[in-house]
Amino acid sequence: MKLKLDLHDIYNRGGEIDRALRAVIDEAVAKKAPVVEIIPGKGSGQLKKHVLRFLERKEIKALYHRVEKDKDNFGRVFVHFRWK
């Protein structure tokens, strides 16, 4: 199971972006999903930077294993989880 979050619709609403990111991370934890795909899109790169800053927060970083930036598609970020 892979969860997916497309941020194209809310790209210019910072508070909603943070809530959507938090919701998908919480859902992944609840369902023990191995991967979350976040699509900030290509654009100027500001939304991707926002997503990466969000993922670097101490309380969020404690929930996942690693972040992978898609080398083939600049507009995608994968968040990997490790479950025991």
Automatic annotation (TrEMBL):
Recorded hits in SUPFAM superfamilies, A to Z, give:
SMR domain-like (SSF160443)
Q: Pfam families in the record, alphabetically?
A: Smr
The residues covered by the Smr domain are: 5-82
Task: Tell me which InterPro entries the record gives.
Answer: Smr_dom, Smr_dom_sf
Protein's recorded name: Smr/MutS family protein
Q: Which domain of life is it from?
A: Bacteria
